[in-house]
What does this fold into?
Amino acid sequence: MTNHQFTLPDGFLFGASTSAHQTEGNNVNADWWAFEHRSETVVHETSGDAADSYHRWREDMDLLADLGFNAYRFSVEWARIEPAPGQVSQSALAHYRRMLQGAHDRGLEPVVTLHHFTSPRWFAERGGWTAPDAAEAFTRYTEAVAPVLDGLATHVATINEPNMLALIHTALRQGGVPADLHHLEPDEQITTAMIEAHHAAKATLHSAQPGLRVGWTVANQVFQAEPGAEDACRAHAWPREDCFLEAARGDDWIGVQAYTRTRVGPDGPLPIPDAAERTLTGWEYYPEALGEAVRHTAEVTGGQVPVLVTENGIATSDDQRRVDYTTAALTGLAQAMRDGIDVRGYLHWSALDNYEWGSYAPTFGLIAVDRDTFARTPKPSAHWLGSLARSGRLPG
It folds into this structure.
């Protein structure tokens, strides 16, 4: 029996993902840049030049297209587009318009994210998502971006992982961002503000560009209840994931972002078993997370919202382990699709080794990036995954 048994539907988006702050470099007007450079910062490394993708995006897209992919998810940077309140940079808008056109010229379907963790400094200084006009400010930014998308983008994500943003805000209030956020309580005010902003931005985009398919992406934690802890697990999952999935009912699509699992006992999240293999981020090696996350997302959204896998991958220095992990993850995805779940695409995290919010050590990329010369080198896993994209089939 061949290892490639599941034939993908026509139009399936198969590619890789990045974000602006993690790859562009020198995003000096962003709140994360300010956070990195505070005297009391807890980050190990600053983002600096990152992968210099602000200037080298053509090379990045050339590589992805040559590898065999047909889609590329990237973000536009609010801090570049609106460096001061109400001041829109036409130069920045033109830059991202060129990127969208460049993707099309190379046969890559762009999947555009409007907010991938970073905000303008001025927005953060006014209280960020806790400010009374936060949703209004985000909607104004969305209105500025909408014309750039005209005719060149089909799928747009408003906010990346709002559930993680709500947890990170709590962590920052407490002095830092711990490796494990699951024991923290997400900020309810921020949760409410981001849901409001998402719905307002979606309405704005639909009004400006009726053909756009708008959704948002959620960090799926794959909460697994230990025997007898089912109620505790549901209660734990609701404010950290499920309320954000519930808010996506009626969206054009929902982004699934899955890497590992979280086991939950009667008193909350449990530690990773001592014998478990860990990735460079310290997460448990658990490729089954993807199939389980897709199924859970479909269940919570009522099965009526098409799924895009907008992130899935592994931080490892062993590229064969990346192939192993992704093979198992895609096998689970294929089975979910066989069972009738409407999955429209798979976008691997990440296209490039990049800045992982405080350190360059966790290497998620299909393509290695030399930190000094910025030379790009596709890894064997990139060629392997690209061959699957070309074949239109998934393992399993």
Q: What stands out?
A: The longest helix spans residues 188-208. Residues 4-390 form a domain with the TIM Barrel fold (CATH 3.20.20.80).
